[in-house]
Amino acid sequence: MKPTPLEQIIVAMIREDGPIPLDRYMALCLGHPVHGYYMSRDPFGPEGDFITAPEISQIFGELIGIWCAAAFQALGAPDEFHLIELGPGRGTLMSDMLRASRVMPGFRDGVRIHLVETSPALRKLQAARLGQTITWHDSLATLPDGPSIVIANEFFDALPIRQFESRNGQWMERRIGLGADDRLVIGLSAQHLDRPPGTDGDILESAPLRDDIARELGSRLAASPGVALVIDYGHAASALGDTLQAVRRHKFCSILDRPGEADLTSHVDFESLGNALRQGGALPHGPITQRQFLLSMGLEARAALLTQKAKLPERNVIGRAVERLAGENQMGNLFKVLAATSPGLPTPYPFGSP
Ligand SMILES: C[S@@+](CC[C@H](N)C(=O)[O-])C[C@H]1O[C@@H](n2cnc3c(N)ncnc32)[C@H](O)[C@@H]1O
């Protein structure tokens, strides 16, 4: 098969400068201004490559909206506050959150919506979906000061990572280079790491951009009152292992297949994310599983209410969605939820509950 346009660019880049680390490769595959995966397409849903929780059921966003309403109260119901979403996809989560949180007096009048989104294609979908005043940002750097509630669902898993492999008593970095026929291959090059090597074949992942953004979020919460909620798939405690994956049309493929046409993600290391938030000056809470979070926030009661109002085929859809979101062998345990608050704010529900 003919190489993708992005593959041709990457091959030329490697020919010129040598093998590139995985985070550079991922950043190009996902964010190249013309050919990056997110830049020109809508990847969600049955016609796309994957589906996320807000696209599975409106209940997901509604329960997060209720969480936001409680956070707004904990912030003292400010006259004006920023509701910030990182990586908002189609805008579905924001739309469902706003519908649910507006029942809280003062929320609708005080809310200012900010979306941190790099994809022009998705910005268009978000504008169409939300149809109200929105400020977009390329990064957290331009977000205004002031009280804030920050939500990030499946944002951190899309940020580039590096991988190191233990070989013969030393860490080697995995890099993308060229094979004999100019096809992309994964190779290793020596790399000094400040930690003892593991057993041969051990994989260590690091996510410098993810940690930088979490630190930046932490310093934002240290400087102005606010809370954040991060939902993503990943592990509660740091661990070794290769979690980088590529998905195209709902199927796993090699990370080297069709660069720019497959989604690349990795598991979020929530221990590392919590540490980075703390380094920035915020207080992390959790993580708890998505199952614990959604059940505590009233998933079953909300599903029962919607089911009562629905006709038969729709009832089955609701039941399947609940199972998908919270089932122990589905997203329920794989996905984790971490909160962070400015110092001095109370631990948000349900993070302090036994
Ligand atoms: C997997 S999607 C999640 C979308 C949405 N939160 C949901 O749950 O449906 C990742 C989102 O993050 C955005 N994104 C990826 N990398 C980004 C970056 N470095 N800065 C800002 N947004 C980014 C993508 O364009 C997309 O909107």
Automatic annotation (TrEMBL):
<keyword id="KW-0489">Methyltransferase</keyword>
<keyword id="KW-0808">Transferase</keyword>
<protein>
    <submittedName>
        <fullName>Class I SAM-dependent methyltransferase</fullName>
    </submittedName>
</protein>
